[in-house]
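Exercise 7b. Backbone tokens:
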């Protein structure tokens, strides 16, 4: 049991929220809703364009490593659908995207339908899809998606092609939300199913905080600020939730976020039958997977580190420092996969999604 500011949380069965949690969830939703789709020119002019491309490469590698043809995928905090093309390349069979930000879900719908400007030249996506607007860390998604589950892959990515924020860490404001997030992932996955995720690396953030003179640190493209309550820079292992900081990243994020001590994340995930397959800081990830020729070729095409020919431009040292703030992880749901796949759930998806098809869900579910 964890006590925080008068709020008693006994875990998953009793989901209690204080007002501030709701306000922060709304702040995050409003921040992402307000972010408009950029044109290709605006995107290329971004001060963190190479970082965005690097993050896209990391997500593509994860998807190529773990998604298989025909997989049913649930994308928690799907945003504007920045990963749709990656899923298409992996030839998945069904996609459900969920996000709290109405504006982002609407952009995701436009992108899926092929209405978003920079995707007009694209052919249609090959998989049917459903979109849901709701709070992934509050709503019982097993109930909402009862007829769609089980899924083969659950994705929760912090780093999208437009923003570089992240997703599961937004659940870490209270133990109840963190538990709901993991309970949702576990309930949606089939035995042997995979959860692909990226999120801020708490070890790096705390190390940088301790090295800083005050409570703020950063460089020309980002800053992180902790409140006075953390002036001693010490964090009790008995309260690993609700450690809030403000994250600002040029042309991307300006949101409250929460520290996720990875060892706590790992043991909480185990309680929900999710075993850690690996966790790697982005720097280590790049180092390791750039040893594979197919991923080097992918990096060349995405252009994060220059294209090896004329395109010499690459990440600035400041962008590379931001990459260090993130990690990638894979969890696997315990148990043996069934031999035969059930594909009926795809009937729930559409090849063209109308505004009316978007399902809005609240916490009463
Ligand atoms: C940095 S974006 C990542 C978007 C997408 N995963 C990608 O990589 O392209 C983070 C997303 O998390 C969503 N988000 C934050 N809190 C959420 C919550 N409680 N429930 C659902 N989505 C949430 C935001 O609305 C935003 O779209």
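Sequence design result:
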């Amino acid at each position: 049991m964890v006590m925080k500011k008068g709020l008693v949380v006994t875990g998953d069965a009793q989901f209690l929220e204080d007002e501030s949690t709701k306000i922060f969830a709304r702040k995050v939703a409003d921040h992402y809703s307000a972010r408009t789709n950029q044109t290709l020119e605006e995107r290329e002019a971004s001060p963190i364009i190479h970082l965005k491309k690097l993050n896209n490469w990391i997500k593509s590698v994860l998807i190529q490593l773990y998604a298989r043809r025909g997989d049913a995928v649930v994308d928690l905090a799907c945003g504007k659908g920045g990963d749709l093309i990656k899923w298409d390349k992996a030839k998945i069979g069904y996609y459900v995207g969920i996000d709290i930000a109405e504006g982002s879900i609407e952009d995701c719908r436009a992108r899926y339908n092929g209405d978003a400007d920079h995707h007009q030249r694209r052919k249609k996506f090959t998989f049917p899809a459903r979109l849901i607007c709701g709070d992934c860390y509050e709503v019982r998604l097993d109930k909402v998606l009862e007829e769609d589950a089980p899924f083969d892959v659950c994705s929760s990515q912090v780093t999208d092609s437009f923003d570089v924020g992240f997703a599961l860490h937004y659940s870490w404001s209270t133990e109840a939300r963190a538990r709901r997030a993991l309970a949702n992932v576990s309930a949606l996955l089939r035995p042997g199913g995979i959860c692909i995720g990226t999120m801020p690396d708490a070890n790096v953030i705390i190390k940088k905080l301790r090295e800083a003179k005050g409570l703020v640190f950063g460089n020309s493209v980002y800053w992180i600020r902790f409140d006075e309550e953390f002036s001693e820079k010490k964090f009790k292992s008995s309260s690993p939730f609700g450690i809030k900081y403000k994250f600002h990243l040029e042309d991307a994020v300006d949101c409250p976020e929460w520290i996720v001590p990875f060892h706590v994340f790992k043991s909480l995930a185990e309680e929900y039958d999710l075993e850690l397959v690996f966790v790697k800081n982005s720097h280590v990830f790049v180092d390791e997977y750039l040893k594979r020729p197919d991923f080097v070729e992918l990096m060349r095409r995405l252009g994060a580190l220059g294209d090896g020919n004329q395109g010499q431009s690459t990440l600035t040292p400041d962008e590379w420092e931001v990459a260090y703030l993130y990690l990638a992880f894979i969890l696997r749901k315990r148990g043996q996969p069934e031999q035969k796949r059930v594909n009926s759930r795809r009937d729930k998806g559409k090849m063209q999604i109308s505004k009316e098809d978007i399902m809005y869900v609240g916490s009463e579910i």
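Instructor comment: The two ends are 24 Å apart (CA to CA). Residues 1-16, 159-166 have pLDDT under 50 and may be disordered.
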